[in-house]
Specification:
Blueprint: H1 3-21, H2 27-32, H3 39-43, H4 45-48, E1 55-59, H5 65-72, E2 76-81, H6 84-97, E3 102-105, H7 111-114, E4 120-125, H8 136-146, E5 147-158, H9 160-163, E6 186-189, E7 205-208, H10 213-222, E8 225-233, E9 245-247, E10 253-255, E11 265-272
Parallel strand pairs: 1-2, 1-4, 2-3, 4-5
Antiparallel strand pairs: 5-11, 6-7, 8-11, 9-10
Helix pairs in contact: 1-6, 8-10
Length: 274
């Protein structure tokens, strides 16, 4: 594991208990309501289709709220993450909810070594995951290795065009960060996380890599997947541009003015060719 990823892992290990205790992740709602689903999974219910009885794996699962939601829709789920603190919270939540979910600790790029290759009906990746990966081609290789022939990738992610915008510039939508994948990451130093908490982080240094939409699709093509659906959205489930967005009752944030100016997220589906 590179030093970049080690520092990211330390940061996520500190975030995990804060996220699990936050209202935003809704752990208590999951426990009290057996039908409760995460906002992220609920948004894509019309696109997911029937997954009951299918074997699925959630890559970069964090504390497992989306993983649990997919299990509640009837899928036989596994989750994988590189943060042991995140997986501790994911296992605890699954146990409290009586859900049978297998969680595995691993770097994403070794997922096909710690999980059975060619065994999954679908691979799921939730929002806010790909920016933590330095190389999108290796991600696509792992996705292809895990899927059965005819198996499906399902991903909703923040749009790379949004991720190139400087969120601190309130004078306009200013492109200041890479759109395409670069060898060197964008570095951040911040003692906060994105949930309401008074606890500062001490592992404050993190690193991110953007990946253009064409780079993502091309990587999937190279590794034997065929695009089956691609939809860009004018919303996403966090306030990406503070002070310039409004939120709806489902927790989706949109530009307060001229929503047509910028795609904020996308849903992509691809099928592994036989």
């Amino acid at each position: 594991m590179s030093d970049y990823l080690r520092q990211n892992k330390a940061n996520w290990d500190q975030r995990a208990p804060l996220h699990a205790a936050s209202r935003g992740y809704g752990a208590e709602a999951f426990v009290s309501d057996p039908a409760y689903l995460s906002d992220v999974v609920r948004f894509d219910l019309p696109r997911l289709g029937g997954i009951a009885g299918l074997r699925g794996v959630h890559l970069q699962c964090h504390i497992g709220t989306d993983t649990l939601s997919l299990a509640r829709l009837g899928a036989r789920m596994s989750g994988l993450d590189f943060s042991p603190a995140s997986l501790e919270q994911a296992r605890l939540l699954a146990q409290r909810c009586g859900a049978e979910i297998s969680y595995v600790e691993s770097d994403l790029y070794a997922a096909d070594q710690v999980l059975p290759a060619g065994a999954f009906d679908f691979v799921y990746t939730g929002i806010g995951a790909l920016i933590w990966l330095p190389r999108i081609d290796d991600w696509a290789r792992v996705v292809a290795a895990l899927l059965k022939p005819g198996g499906r990738l399902f991903i909703r992610e923040g749009h790379p065009m949004l991720l190139a915008v400087n969120e601190a510039r309130e004078d306009g939508l200013v492109i200041e960060y890479p759109y395409f994948e670069c060898a060197e990451p964008v570095a951040w130093d911040d003692d906060r996380t994105y949930v309401d908490t008074d606890t500062p982080l001490t592992a404050t240094r993190t690193y991110e890599w953007n990946h253009g939409l064409g780079e993502i699709v091309s990587a999937l093509f190279r590794h034997g997947l065929q695009l089956s659906a691609l939809e860009e959205h004018d919303s996403l489930p966090w306030e990406a541009l503070p002070g310039r967005m409004v939120v709806d009752g489902a927790g989706e944030w949109r530009l307060a003015k001229d929503r047509w100016r910028l795609p904020l997220s996308y849903t992509l589906q691809a099928v592994k060719r036989a």
